[in-house]
UniProtKB/TrEMBL annotation:
It comes from Streptomyces griseomycini. This is Transposase. Pfam families: HTH_58 (PF19575). InterPro entries: HTH_58_Actinobacteria-type. It comes from the Bacteria. Residues 53-74 are annotated as: Disordered.
Amino acid sequence: MDKGKQITGAAREELAREMKEQYENGLSIRAIAEAHGRSYGFVHRVLTETDVPLRSRGGDRPRRRLEKAGRPQR
């Protein structure tokens, strides 16, 4: 797909399905954007349009580190 080209209809639905699967398998929005030659904003918009629950910023951080540092868990 050409960078910046508008994607509509069945092509957009297929791309959304693919991006959703990649995101649910652990890829970041930035990684998906780079793989498809699209912007972060485009991928974010496509994921929110398909009702994908977005992860919080910072990735998966184990809480055990906080316990070891003597800090209470939230």
